[in-house]
Amino acid sequence: MKKAVVLLSGGLDSTVTIAVAISAGLEVIPLTINYGQRHMRELRAAKEVVKFYNLENHVIIDLDLTVFKTSALTSPDFDVPEGTGDDLSGTMIPVTYVPSRNIIFLGIAAGLCESESAEKIFIGANSIDYSGYPDCRPEFLEAFQKTLEVGTKAGIEGRPLSIEAPLLYLTKADIVGLGKRLGAPLHLTWSCYKGGVKACGRCDSCLLRLRGFREAGYEDEIAYEVRS
Amino acid sequence: MKKAVVLLSGGLDSTVTIAVAISAGLEVIPLTINYGQRHMRELRAAKEVVKFYNLENHVIIDLDLTVFKTSALTSPDFDVPEGTGDDLSGTMIPVTYVPSRNIIFLGIAAGLCESESAEKIFIGANSIDYSGYPDCRPEFLEAFQKTLEVGTKAGIEGRPLSIEAPLLYLTKADIVGLGKRLGAPLHLTWSCYKGGVKACGRCDSCLLRLRGFREAGYEDEIAYEVRS
Asked: Are strands B27-34 and A3-7 parallel, antiparallel or unpaired?
């Protein structure tokens, strides 16, 4: 059975991504980076998703990125902004951008792949209904793939790791529909940028998620403060 | 004054690299990743180098990579091998290879650059007298540079971060000579893969270092168990 490392934040996209990897018959190693994001709610969601799938090999790596002072997700100096609900895939990069996050996360995933003799890295990057982050785009993933080919032992020995981003060209509604078809535990996931008991329903991430469920024709079973 | 993040392990190469960056008139932010390497001796050296240069902005980030079980530098399951003294730049990758280490470190450095509005990342990668690591080669650095251009906010806004590897094509003797000319505190650095009170004098890293000093015509002032 081929092995794959799956980056799992505990959000909607990464949970559908792990469902895709499992349904493809791969032996999955879930990898969660605890990077000092504002709340631990997301980490709890990741653990619950891993438990749902009866996986016992969850790798959780602590990496304190709170030194990155410019992101609302790693610094207490910012409030998480409320979303506008429109033009979420525009060219302006929001304050929730964590510098180089996917470069760092894919790098750690690549190291774990090499260490575990896995062949694939799954990431829930999405270039359609996303928040404008540069490291969620196909150009980035292609460049990183090339980096793995020349910069890892596996690569120069002719067994390059491959990056799989099965959600890259899906809308949020597509992602919800795919997750539902695969039986992914969407009710356990957490997308809100804030860490309350209920999702806020106001930040970009909540707005994208709610719209995705609505357009897919499903109800989002998690609790919200407001449903816009 | 332009800013640069300098990856500083506390070894010979990264210390000469920070000397190069300082002598170029850059405002330097030293970045050390404490990644669970076998010993803290290297971290102490990094701190002493930073103190030597009177820098007060040393960023130390903890990242536990001991989950990478295949490297002698992160796993207690291996002994650090003794070097042979010849053919150190051959094609075989030694057990001291830490999977994807420079991808991860450069990713974190890139994030810090973006966060601090710095423009350059300095790394002491060397492709001549090195231990055969794939992530020390020019091909890797070029691919990573391309990744930064498309995968960071700075890159897509037309201010791509640049990776500077001033030692890339130098021999170890060249590096020693350059460090001496720049007044770098080579006596504070630590290269040995082991963490004893004295450097072992037997591992690949010690052998490379000792040969470099010998060929450059300088005495290595640190203490060794044996000097081969």
From this structure: unpaired
CB atoms A67 and B139 under 8 Å: no
* CB-CB contact of A118 with A29 (8 Å): yes
**Cα dihedral A220, A29, B133, B59 in deg (nearest 10):** 50
**Chain B contacts in chain A segment 31-70 (CB below 8 A):** 59, 61-65, 67-70
List all residues of chain A from 67 to 106 with a beta carbon under 8 Å from chain B. 67-71, 93, 97-104, 106
Domain boundaries, chain B: 3-216
In Å, the largest CA–CA distance within chain B is 53
Q: Please tell me the distance from the alpha carbon of residue A180 to that of residue A191, in angstroms, as a whole number.
A: 17
- Considering chain A, what is the average pLDDT of its residues? 89
For A115, which of B68, B102, B146 is closest by C-beta distance?
A: B68
**Both structure tokens of B203:** 């591992």
Which of A59, A97, A149 is facing B67, going by the closest CB pair? A59
A140 to chain B: closest CA residue: B151
Average pLDDT for A143-169: 93
Q: State the pTM of this model.
A: 0.90
Alpha carbon distance B54, B76 (integer Å)? 35
User: In the predicted model, what is the mean pLDDT of residues B23-38?
Assistant: 91
In this prediction, residue A78 carries a pLDDT of 66
**Strand, helix or coil for residue B162:** strand
Superfamily grouping for domain B3-216: HUPs (3.40.50.620)
Structure tokens at B14: 């990264």
Mutation pick from A34, A98, A152, A161 vs chain B, by most beta carbons of B within 10 Å, is A152
Taking CA atoms, B37 is separated from B11, B24, B184, in Å, by 13, 31, 24
Stretch (H or E) spanning B101: helix B101-116
- pLDDT value at B127 more than 80: yes
Q: pLDDT grade, residue A130 (50/70/90)?
A: low
CB–CB of B143 and A137 under 8 A? no
Please give the DSSP secondary-structure letter assigned to residue B80: P
Nearest residue to A184 (alpha-carbon basis) of A57, A62, A39, A6 = A6
Q: For residue A166, is pLDDT > 80?
A: yes
Residue B94 pLDDT exceeds 80: no
Rounded to two decimals, the ipTM of the complex is: 0.88
**CB-based contact, B147 to chain A, within 8 Å:** yes
What rounded mean pLDDT belongs to chain B?
Answer: 89
Burial class (CB in 10 A: 0-12, 13-18, 19+), B190: buried
List the beta strands (DSSP E) in chain A. 3-7, 27-34, 59-62, 120-122, 162-164
| Residue B214: its H or E element | helix B204-216
